[in-house]
Each structure stands twice: as structure tokens, then as C-alpha cells.
Amino acid sequence: MKKIDIINAVRVLSKLPINKVKNDKTKFSLLSDYRELRKVSKAIDEDRDVAVQKFREDFEDEIEVVASLRRHDLPVNAHEGYVTAERELNKFLDNMLQEEIAVSIPAPVSWEDFVKAVGDTDLSFEEINSLDCIIAKS
Fold first, then answer.
1. Could you say which of 6, 22, 65, 106 has the lowest number of CB atoms within 10 Å?
2. Per-residue H/E/C for the chain
3. pTM for the model
4. What is the reported pLDDT for 79?
């Protein structure tokens, strides 16, 4: 599973009101899956934070200057090192989020049970699609 898919699934699951899920089996399955995905998501966030913090430390003196130039639509010509490092950081983070990692989903939920459980919750089709990782393949 891609790291970005885990983050997206956690984001969607975190907004589901678990107390509205009446079926206990589905509720506990969703809770188990969320807890496992959240644990992995936190580790991904920590890895991302380490890279961002390193960038901030390396360019502490330039961050506000470059931000100010950009806010005023001025060229950032004298900060080539910063711009290059920023581009490399963004590429690194994008690649990191596309990495595949193994995640064990303890209790996949069927589509039918999931739809019954969240029937009155406001979810978009895209948000539901983000949950493919916790839906049992039939």
C-alpha cells in the first residue's frame, strides 16, 4: 500500500463519527483498522517532519526572506541554494509518499457493511475511494 493512501484513509476515517456505527462487528473492525493505519501514518508523519526540520535548520536565515519575496511576487534570484534544496525536499517528500509499504489490516470491512455503517455520514466518492485499503476484496 502506498504511504499516501494510508494518510488519506486515516484522514477520512478520523472524521467518521464512530458512535453512529450501530453494528458492533463493523464498529470494532473500523476501530481496529483505523488504529493500525493511524500507527503507520504517525510514523510516516515523523519521517516527513525529520526531513522538513532538517531543511528549516539548514535554511533558517533564508526562509522568511524568500517567503517575503514570494508574497510580494518578487524574484528569488539571490537564493539559488534555497530554491534548489526546496525543490529537492519536495521531490523527496513526493517520492516518499509514493513508496509502497506492507500494512496488515486486522479486520477488513465489506462494502455492504461499510455503506450501512456510514449511510448518513457526509463522505464524497473520492473519500470513499480512499478507503479501498480497509474494504475486504470480494
1. 22
2. CEHHHHHHHHHHHHCCCHHHCCCHHHHHHHHHHHHHHHHHHHHHHHHHHHHHHHHHHHCCCCHHHHHHHHHCCCCCHHHHHHHHHHHHHHHHHHHHHHCECCCCCCCCECHHHHHHHCCCCCCCHHHHHCCHHHECCC
3. 0.84
4. 94
Task: Tell me the residue type at 45.
Answer: D
Residues in the chain: 138
- Cell numbers that stand for 104 in this block: 496488515
In sequence order, which residues have a C-beta less than 8 Å from that of residue 61 and are 6 or more positions away? none
Alpha-carbon span 136 to 138, nearest angstrom: 6
